[in-house]
Design brief:
Layout (H helix, E strand, L loop, with lengths): L1 H17 L6 E16 L12 E17 L2 E12 L16 E12 L2 E12 L5 E14 L2 E11 L12 E6 L2 E3 L4 E12 L8 E2 L6 E2 L3 E17 L2 E16 L7 E4 L1 E11 L4 E10 L8 E2 L42 E13 L2 E12 L9 E15 L2 E12 L13 E10 L1
Parallel strand pairs: 15-18
Antiparallel strand pairs: 1-2, 1-23, 2-3, 3-4, 4-5, 5-6, 6-7, 7-8, 7-9, 8-10, 9-10, 10-13, 11-12, 13-14, 14-15, 14-16, 16-17, 17-19, 19-20, 20-21, 21-22, 22-23
């Protein structure tokens, strides 16, 4: 992988240098961060240490764009990560890097009034409640004054070659127009169709509870999402709303007594921030995603099919229960960034006492919509504190602390202990 990445970079640089200067504009950018933190008692007890972690890691992203002309660009994004002291780049010598990633590589061209992006790219749907990640596919966007209408084809899984292998393909088809009603108001309705003739071959994660299942055992699956994002900006702040209904049907293997499953789930979220002055605000949000406690032919838990490593659907929220800045683990039985079977509310404030320094304080309350196997639903109340300071222009230092007053749905048993997290992050973008 490392050799392939070096070859790709060499090829890009060769193209950049041999093209006539008048015909090509090169743009470079990137992002870098180093984090050091400790998290303790994330299991809700202090005996097993199963989710304890203390460490340091570094992430680097390098961006290269070849602007060939005003209607044609070639976009690329590379990433490599390293945990200090590991054997893939963080050990002595730091030359064992094997985790290079080509996150994005696509062509971006415009045939007025339509823009095309073809290749490995990124998108966000429903603020991440539905999707916030990279994917292989194509985006075709019609653009006009006040209107953008993108159609997205996302290839989630390729079934392969051979007899009936193509039936295992898993595809997403998405229509997500955005209408700018005024400088203050934007409406984005969307429709998503996820389909496969043999979904069980992919075995995507089906996050229906604290312990996810999979679509293994399903054959033909047709899942659809109908949703709406609303965004409003005011002189004193901003507000937003997201609502999604999930429907469709999945056929089970003939041995299953139910025969098929009807998907009937929904999610709603709302948030706002108000400027109290030029130095402080008050902000908050609330979201609710349905769960499912009945074993029948109705799937009432909100979920989005995603790979077993958890990619795809991604909405970060609280530091401990929702990943936050340090996203190694979440506290036991919390859904993390896969919002399902949960109701959560937040209120907080950001205060800037002096230039380049801010203090953000948040309180989160969260509970399961459907009770767990112990007949418990309260995950806990979490307190988060973030101090941010720009050391020099472009270089930011964050100091972060979080404490979860654990509920019985996080852990119920012996050696109960509240989860906590303390850490720091140094980051820059260019």
């Amino acid at each position: 992988m490392r050799k392939m990445t070096v070859l790709v970079l060499a090829a890009l640089l060769t193209v950049a240098f041999v093209m006539p200067a008048s015909a090509l504009e090169n743009k470079f950018g990137g992002y870098w961060r180093t984090r050091a933190w400790t998290q303790q008692n994330f299991t809700g007890e202090d005996k097993t240490s199963a989710l304890d972690w203390t460490g340091v890691d570094t992430r680097t992203r390098l961006f290269y764009t070849a602007v060939i002309n005003e209607n044609l660009k070639f976009e690329n994004k590379f990433e490599f990560n390293s945990t200090w002291g590991d054997t893939v780049g963080g050990d002595i010598g730091t030359d064992g890097m094997t985790n290079w990633r080509i996150k994005n590589s696509y062509v971006d061209f415009t045939l007025a009034p339509v823009n095309f992006k073809v290749g490995l790219q990124a998108t966000t749907l429903g603020r991440g409640f539905l999707f916030d990640d990279d994917f292989a596919g194509a985006t075709i966007t019609y653009k006009s004054e006040g209107v953008e209408i993108p159609f997205i084809w996302m290839k989630a899984y390729e079934g392969g070659k051979g007899l009936d292998a193509n039936k295992a393909d898993f595809d997403f088809y998405i229509l997500a127009p955005a209408f700018t009603v005024s400088e203050m108001f934007t409406i984005t309705p969307y429709a998503i169709w996820a389909t496969s003739d043999n979904a069980g071959k992919w075995k995507p994660t089906l996050h229906t509870s604290a312990t996810p299942g999979t679509l293994e055992g399903f054959e033909k699956v047709n899942i659809y999402y109908i949703g709406l994002d609303l965004d409003a900006k005011f002189d004193a702040g901003k507000a937003w709303f997201t609502g999604v209904y999930q429907g469709g049907k999945g056929d089970l293997l003939k041995a299953n007594p139910y025969g098929s499953i009807d998907f009937q789930a929904w999610l709603a979220a709302v948030g706002a921030s108000v400027n109290l002055s030029d130095k402080a605000d008050i902000h908050g949000q609330f979201f609710y995603a349905t769960g499912d406690k009945d074993k029948d032919d109705k799937m009432k838990a909100f979920f989005v099919p995603s790979q077993d490593d958890g990619t795809g659907q991604s909405y970060y929220w609280a530091e401990i229960m929702g990943y936050g800045v340090f996203d190694e683990y979440v506290s036991a039985n919390a859904p993390g960034d896969k919002i399902t079977n949960i109701m959560a509310a937040n209120i907080g404030t950001t205060f800037k006492p002096v230039k380049d320094f801010s203090i953000t304080f948040d309180i989160w309350y969260a509970k399961l919509v459907e009770k767990d196997a112990n007949n418990e639903d309260y995950l806990g109340t979490e307190v988060d504190l973030v101090l941010s300071y720009e050391l020099v222009k472009g270089l930011k230092l964050d100091l972060i602390g979080a404490y979860l007053f654990r509920g019985e749905a996080t852990y119920k048993g012996l050696n109960e202990a509240n989860p906590y997290e303390v850490g720091t992050q140094l980051s820059l973008s260019f």
